[in-house]
Amino acid sequence: MKPAILISRTIPDGALALARQRATVDLHPGPEPLPKAELMARLKDKAGLVCLLTDRVDAEVLAAAPRLRVAANVAVGYDNIDVAAATARGIVVTNTPEVLTETTADFAWTLLTAVARRLVEADRYLRAGKFTQWELMLFLGGDIHGKTLGIIGFGRIGRTVARRARGFSMRVLYHDAVRADPATERELGAAFVDKMTLLRESDFVSLHAPLLPTTRHLIDRAELQAMKRTAYLVNTARGPLVNEAALVEALREGWIAGAALDVYEDEPRVHPGLLELNNVVLAPHIASASAETRLKMATMAVENCLAVLEGDPPKTPVNPEVLRR
Ligand SMILES: NC(=O)c1ccc[n+]([C@@H]2O[C@H](COP(=O)([O-])OP(=O)(O)OC[C@H]3O[C@@H](n4cnc5c(N)ncnc54)[C@H](O)[C@@H]3O)[C@@H](O)[C@H]2O)c1
Q1: Given a cut of 90, is residue 325 above it in pLDDT?
Q2: What distance in angstroms lies between residue 165's CA and the mean position of ligand 1's atoms?
């Protein structure tokens, strides 16, 4: 008999077809995430879950799923899942690293260039019918080439962002909880510095650390005040890495020149102060959203889920200790 799985939101057709070949699928097709009570009710008889970062899979949800053996997140970050609670229950948690690295790095650059060259503001200006003549002083932004890029979180995505900086002849600084090996530093031309040095010296600061208790408000008032008044902050990692209220103050008061954000402290809510400002570019959490990559992510999550249910090791477990039991 095929195992029963819940897929908590619509996923690309190819990935859904794969799931249906080898499992009995209960799909929540709605545009909204399942309310917690319904998620719990629908998980009661399921052996597998394919979920998204908008599903909060906490200890209470896991306790309501006595048959659950795997929670396969369609994301590389898994801060939406209580991994410790899952591990205690012998539930494997998986994520989707690597397949979204290049696409997410592309988007960090999309945001960086958009905010530095004021593209969104300029687009709004043109659409409002205000482009009546070429002007020497119109929408003066900041240069990118030859500047210093500071990367906080020098893992897969951070390093891929660094690699692209070579095309812009930039100096690259990085900070991470763990220093990279000398060969990687040489290859990427990146220098390890402490966080405050990075903030003081960078013209662009791009965040690529996971959300952990230690990275919450990694960028707070003191950090924003340490940055150059001409610098830009880019966040494609997780919203709570930045104290959003402090960021609003920094952008309003000119502590920094601008920010470009894909993620927010309390998604999908965006701090109202950000919405009023012109020196911030706001994207609705789409850094990995290319058609190819979203299909790869969903397929990888389905494959991880099916592997566990069929007794094979999943490709990318985040709590592999469960598999060794
Ligand atoms: N906006 C999006 O759609 C999107 C897409 C993909 C990934 N992400 C986010 O990006 C994050 C990074 O993804 P990845 O694949 O590069 O992960 P990764 O694990 O390869 O890299 C994360 C790096 O952060 C470092 N780190 C951990 N704690 C730190 C700290 N306190 N200070 C500095 N560095 C620290 C780690 O040592 C590691 O090198 C994910 O956790 C996810 O939350 C967001």
Answers
A1: no
A2: 18
Classify 46 as helix, strand or coil. coil
Q: Which residues line ligand 1 (CB under 6 A)?
A: 76-77, 97, 100-101, 104, 152-158, 175-178, 208-212, 214-215, 236-238, 262-263, 285, 287-288
Q: Tell me, yes or no, if 271 is annotated catalytic.
A: no
Contact criterion met (CB below 8 Å) for 303 and 297: no
pTM, full prediction: 0.97
Q: Pairing state of beta strands 258-261 and 4-7?
A: unpaired
Contact at 8 Å (CB) between 50 and 75?
no
HSE, CB side, 13 Å, CA atoms: give it for residue 21: 11
Question: Residues 79-110: pLDDT tens digits?
Answer: 999 999 999 999 999 999 999 999 999 999 99
Percent of the chain with pLDDT strictly greater than 70? 100
What are the helix (H) ranges across 131-277? 156-165, 182-188, 195-201, 221-226, 244-253, 272-275
Q: Please tell me which residue in 42, 69, 175, 238 is annotated as part of the active site.
A: 238
Does the active-site annotation cover 22?
no
33, 317 Cβ separation under 8 angstroms: no
Give, for ligand 1, the residue of 54, 173, 184, 208 to mutate: max count of ligand atoms closer than 8 Å to Cβ.
208
CA proximity to 216, closest of 225, 207, 227: 207
Integer-rounded Cα Rg, in Å, for the chain is 21
Angle at 251 between CA 245 and CA 252, to 5 degrees: 90
Concatenated DSSP letters of 210-228: PP-TTTTTSB-HHHHHHS-
Residue-wise pLDDT tens digits, 305-314: 999 999 999 9
**Residue whose CA is at the smallest distance from ligand 1 atom 10:** 237
